Amino acid sequence: MRPRATLATAGRVLRQLRHDPRTVVLLLVVPCVLEILLKYVLDGQPFTFSRIGGPLLGLFPFITMFLVTSITMLRERTTGTLERLMAMPIAKLDLLLGYGIAFGAVAAVQAVLTTTVAFGLLDLSSTGSEADVVVFAIANALLGMSLGLFVSAFANTEFQAVQFLPATVFPQLLLCGLLVPRDQMADVLDAASSALPLTYAYEGLSRVTTGPGFDGTAWRDLAIVLAVTLLALALGATTLRRRTG
Amino acid sequence: MPSSPAIETKALRVVRGGSEVLHEIDLEVPEGEVTGLLGPSGCGKSTLMRAIVGVQIVQGGAVNVLGKPAGSAELRARVGYVTQAPSVYLDLSVEENLLYFATVVRAAPSRIAEVMRAVDIDELAGRKVGNLSGGQVARVSLATALLNEPPLLVLDEPTVGLDPVLRRDLWGMFRALADGGTTLLVSSHVMDEADRCDRILLMRDGSILATGTPQELRDDTGADDLDAAFLTLIDRAEGAD
């Protein structure tokens, strides 16, 4: 492992994004627009907006980074740059951490922007500070990134990679408690949701926005999200092979 | 006493997609020479090169490169590899690509300008690779492999699609590199490039059909040009089956 190679990788990934300004704008603007949309869709139910509006801010980066990473990594695989890197003196960890730094930074910008819009313009209130939401947003972005990295190994085309979003992310969004509290679901789904990382991401976000704040449970939730991220990264690392058939 | 070969394979076997694509290949590539790997498209040249670079899963035999088993971690800084399909970032500029790979292979930043000049892409430095022509992208990919001046270069069809002047210039560069002690293994399916090599490995259907200097192959077959020599060798091999 070499910090210079890690940072060079992060810089390279960010430069790739910079050459694609439309993607950058979409990454930053779409979550804000969706949050505004949600506010007025729930015009007659302000309580619901204050319940899910805050947690959603921290969940956007999970979704966008999952997509961006799975496509970026798929391109590395299909254009041969991954094979070239694997034949070069770079540790897999340098590559993974480089990705993590780059997408974590983008997620931070995205989260600061969306929370500013939500708390500043949309009158969303929160028990915790904006920074608490941003912390969870970055953790969720890294979770999305590591899962995206892992599933990209199972996609041969960009079409397939995109379909992994509804396949792996939507069920978690349905089950995490955002739409319906988990104790109101069928027992089997409630049980299943406790095995899914997004459940803890939502629970933590919910505590820092509408609950008691950044308490022990929120810390535990954050730790679980980060632990699953590391697990997915380790699994993702096994899909970066120096030798292929 | 000749120096030990830069590349040596013994009974190398590779199976891809359920069928054997390399059959017990034995070969030696001497140090400091340009060795041409020639043969029709689909004969296993790229797979052989992948095995030498250590990115191919092999089913049997041994591959030694610069005295180490192929794929050893210490070889990653000493073997430059250019795949047939250019493997560079299409959404970065030429210079940004070279800057990234230079850091990865620990090359001095001054090398970036040098390799761009060497493959004649210095005027494209700021251009996005995705907007360049196929031949230009191929040269960006080649420049990447030259950054850290590795003692062994494995180049898979580096001159495909290039205009004759550029091809001549690149072969001139390969020659200069070999004169400076670099070992080059260059594949091609264009027989007229064979004459520019010190030594030729002629490959067909996953086996090495013949090896030797261009002159040896001509003498051996009594042919005037290498195309005819290769045909004779192929006929001979098929007669033996």
Descriptive overview:
The complex is a heterodimer of chains A (245) and B (241). Chain A contains 10 helices and no strands. By secondary structure, chain A is mainly α. The mean pLDDT of chain B is 92. By secondary structure, chain B is α/β, with parallel strands linked by helices. Chain B has a domain of 141 residues: P-loop containing nucleotide triphosphate hydrolases (Rossmann fold), CATH 3.40.50. In chain B, β9 and β10 form a beta hairpin. Chain B contains 7 helices and 10 strands. Chain B is globular and about 55 Å long. Chains A and B meet through α1 and α4 of A and α2 of B.
Helix content of chain B: 25-40%
> Low-confidence spans of chain A: pLDDT under 50, at least 5 residues?
none
**Mean pLDDT rating of chain A:** 92
CA-based shape of chain B: globular
The structural domain count of chain A equals 1
Radius of gyration of chain A equals: 18 Å
Strand content of chain A: under 5%
CATH topology of the domain at 1-78 and 179-241 in chain B: Rossmann fold
What is the CATH C-level name of the domain at 1-78 and 179-241 in chain B?
Alpha Beta
Q: What is the helix content of chain A?
A: over 70%
Strand pairing plus helix content of chain B: what structural class?
Answer: alpha/beta
Indicate the topology.
The complex is a heterodimer of chains A (245) and B (241).
Chain A: H1 3-18, H2 21-41, H3 46-78, H4 81-86, H5 92-121, H6 130-152, H7 158-175, H8 187-193, H9 197-209, H10 216-238
Helix pairs in contact in A: 1-5, 2-3, 2-5, 3-5, 3-6, 3-7, 3-9, 5-6, 6-9, 6-10, 9-10
Chain B: E1 7-16, E2 19-29, E3 34-38, H1 45-53, E4 60-65, E5 68-69, E6 79-82, H2 94-104, H3 110-118, H4 134-146, E7 152-156, H5 164-179, E8 183-188, E9 199-204, E10 207-212, H6 214-221, H7 226-240
Parallel strand pairs in B: 3-8, 3-9, 6-7, 7-8
Antiparallel strand pairs in B: 1-2, 1-4, 4-5, 9-10
